TrEMBL record:
It comes from the Archaea. It catalyses: L-valine + 2-oxoglutarate = 3-methyl-2-oxobutanoate + L-glutamate; L-leucine + 2-oxoglutarate = 4-methyl-2-oxopentanoate + L-glutamate; L-isoleucine + 2-oxoglutarate = (S)-3-methyl-2-oxopentanoate + L-glutamate. Its cofactor is pyridoxal 5'-phosphate. One of its GO terms (biological process) is L-valine biosynthetic process. Pathway: Amino-acid biosynthesis; L-leucine biosynthesis; L-leucine from 3-methyl-2-oxobutanoate: step 4/4; Amino-acid biosynthesis; L-valine biosynthesis; L-valine from pyruvate: step 4/4; Amino-acid biosynthesis; L-isoleucine biosynthesis; L-isoleucine from 2-oxobutanoate: step 4/4. This is Branched-chain-amino-acid aminotransferase. InterPro entries: Aminotrans_IV (IPR001544), Aminotransferase-like (IPR036038), B_amino_transI (IPR005785), BCAT-like_C (IPR043132), BCAT-like_N (IPR043131), BCAT_family (IPR033939), Class-IV_PLP-Dep_Aminotrnsfr (IPR050571). Its EC number is 2.6.1.42. NCBIfam families: ilvE_I (TIGR01122), PRK06606.1 (NF005146). It comes from Natronoarchaeum philippinense. Belongs to the class-IV pyridoxal-phosphate-dependent aminotransferase family. SUPFAM superfamilies: D-aminoacid aminotransferase-like PLP-dependent enzymes (SSF56752). Acts on leucine, isoleucine and valine.
Length: 309
């Protein structure tokens, strides 16, 4: 569904609420030409106690931390961004939605150096359903290992959620879709499993969970962190510093993606090789169900994960 089909009409930008169609930037904006921006993806869930933003504080932490390698000065503090986001949700009467905070170097000059370019900040919220397809959460998705490799953290800071880095993600994802798959898996420069274009990945083998280490140039996903905690609370052993080879994907009992958009999505095939029974496995199902249960009706155990609107 495109934005024009959605019932959304307001964006917060540089300290002001604006009509959706008026939130624009100059064509010579630095971030447009060089990818010099940072962003977050956050979900607000319609919980039993009303709309609540999931892991908002953790997302804000990463937002400000992502700006540091680029010496980007975000003049708006946490309280202002929080109130702006909540007001956007209220104004548009959204019970559940996706939230996109973004900061980028704006319009002033177009040398590669962003010196003297202002930092612009915007937040938008809109309804967004299942990211990888309506049936994906139950049936799983078919993926391919991309020919595009993930860049190393010695080349570009991979712990920052940088707009320009997602060219790599776009190339991998579109390659997969051209070849009839739903999504891609990207390997690191050494040929080990890194992540999906916009998701972290977990492997289940003999009842234990494995997910690539942060040192393998992956993003420190907040849903990844949450699933690790949930899985351990359920009694599973989680190896969160794992090195996973491409071949191990094919022999896994189960695989699944995690991410703000993807949530917990099973993987049923990799490169036309059926994973496990070729559908959502029991470990994935338990973790997925626990995750959705807690975002629909948060328990005291995870209460600090939610910021109520």
């Amino acid at each position: 569904m495109g934005f024009d089909e959605m019932d959304v009409d307001t964006i917060w930008m540089d300290g002001e609420f604006q009509d959706w169609d008026d939130a624009q930037v100059h064509v010579l904006t630095h971030g447009l030409h060089y990818g010099t921006g940072i962003f977050e993806g956050v979900r607000c869930y319609d919980t039993a106690d009303g709309p609540a933003i999931f892991r908002w504080d953790a997302h804000l932490d990463r937002f400000y931390e992502s700006a540091k390698p680029y010496e980007m000065d975000i003049e708006h503090d946490r309280e202002e961004l929080t109130e702006a986001t909540m007001e956007l949700i209220r104004r548009q009467d959204l019970e559940s939605c996706y939230i996109r905070p973004v900061a980028f170097y704006g319009y002033n000059s177009l040398g590669v150096s962003p010196k003297d370019c202002p930092t612009q900040v915007a937040i938008a919220c809109w309804p967004w359903g299942t990211y990888l397809g309506e049936d994906a959460l139950q049936k799983g998705v078919e993926v391919m290992v991309s020919s595009w490799r993930k860049h190393s953290s010695s080349q570009i800071p991979t712990n920052a959620k940088t707009t320009g880095l997602y060219v790599n993600s776009m190339l991998a994802g579109e390659e997969a879709r051209r070849n009839g798959y739903t999504e891609a898996i990207v390997l690191d420069k050494e040929g080990y499993v890194a992540e999906g274009p916009g998701e972290n990945i977990f492997m289940v083998k003999d009842g234990e969970l494995y997910t690539p280490a942060l040192s393998q140039s992956i993003l420190d996903g907040i849903t990844r962190q949450s699933v690790i905690e949930v899985a351990r609370d359920l009694g599973y052993t989680v190896h969160d510093q794992a090195t996973i080879s491409r071949g191990q994907l094919h022999t896994a009992d189960e695989l699944f993606f995690t991410g703000t958009a993807a949530e917990v999505t099973p993987i049923r095939q990799v490169d036309n090789v059926e994973i496990g029974s070729g559908t959502r496995g029991p470990v994935t199902e338990e973790i997925q169900q626990t995750f959705f249960d807690l975002v629909e009706d948060p328990s005291d155990e995870y209460a600090d994960w939610f910021t109520y609107v």
